[in-house]
Design a protein that fits this description.
By secondary structure, this protein is an alpha+beta fold. The protein has one domain: Class I glutamine amidotransferase (GATase) domain (Rossmann fold, 3-Layer(aba) Sandwich), CATH 3.40.50.880. The strands form two sheets. It has a ten-stranded mixed β-sheet, sandwiched between helices. Strands 6-9 form a two-stranded antiparallel sheet. Strand 4, helix 4 and strand 5 form a beta-alpha-beta unit. Helix 2 packs across helix 7 and helix 4 crosses helix 5.
Length: about 250
């Protein structure tokens, strides 16, 4: 998907023009629509969702409207951003989106806004803070665990262990969660201020958070928006973001 979801309080729902039209992008992106609906359900009626696609707006002007940032899934991060040549499996690289989201992350951190990052989101958050990625977990580092599941997206495919006492474990309400898996890039070395707090059975990093308990900056490698119908931990992630944005 080619959208960044950003949470803005005390505003009507607005769609910023994007390449092809933001409303069209949302209409054909079921995952973005599900996340948008989750935010609406979790928030008060005067809370809006601002959706910004590629080319839609510059990050500084958008950031002035925000009380929280939600980074969604999508294609691969350009490995040039962390100093590597592209792997043969690289796909759907979107330099404009990379630039917008990287700037949005830095502005959100500067303004101390709450951040929730999902799938691609954990990767762009990490790279924005100077971290690196595995470009293809099947070959680097190599694993027999399938991280691009064949099962339906709303079905979990493996477990994740979460560090007890971490902010992520507190929000999820558990230190073990069943997740879906639809990625081939993953966090290798956490960026500045980030700590790994969740791992797949093969030790691929599945969650990071900012090493500051006063800040709400959480990121997960799975897609909780696909699991909310039957997963309380998934629902808790979105509720926690809204609560942090209200604070």
């Amino acid at each position: 998907m080619a959208d960044t979801l950003m949470l803005a309080n005390s505003r009507p729902v607005r769609f910023v023009p994007a390449a092809g039209g933001a409303i069209e992008l949302v209409g054909r992106s079921a995952a973005v629509s599900r996340v948008q609906e989750l935010i609406r359900r979790s928030a008060t009626l005067d809370t809006g969702v601002l959706i910004v696609g590629e080319g839609g707006a510059d990050a500084p002007s958008v950031a002035r409207e925000l009380h929280g940032l939600l980074l969604t899934g999508g294609g691969d991060i350009d490995p040039a951003l962390f100093g590597e040549a592209p792997h043969p499996t690289l796909y759907e690289v979107a330099p404009t989106r990379d630039a917008l989201e990287t700037a949005a992350v830095r502005l959100a951190l500067e303004r101390r806004l709450p951040i929730l990052a999902i799938c691609r989101g954990i990767q762009i958050l990490n790279v924005a803070l100077g971290g690196t990625l595995h470009q293809d977990v099947g070959t680097d580092p190599g694993t027999e665990l399938r991280h691009s599941q064949q099962a339906p997206r709303d079905q979990p495919s493996h477990k994740v262990q979460v560090a007890p006492g971490s902010r992520l474990a507190e929000v999820l309400g558990t230190d073990e969660v069943e997740v879906n898996s639809m990625h081939h890039q993953a966090v290798r070395a956490p960026g500045r201020g980030l700590v790994a707090v969740a791992w797949a059975p093969d030790q691929i990093i599945e969650g990071v958070e900012l090493d500051d308990r006063e800040r709400f900056v959480l990121a997960v490698q799975w897609h909780p928006e696909e699991l909310v119908s039957h997963s309380a931990p998934a629902r808790r992630l979105f509720s926690a973001l809204v609560d942090a944005a209200r604070a």
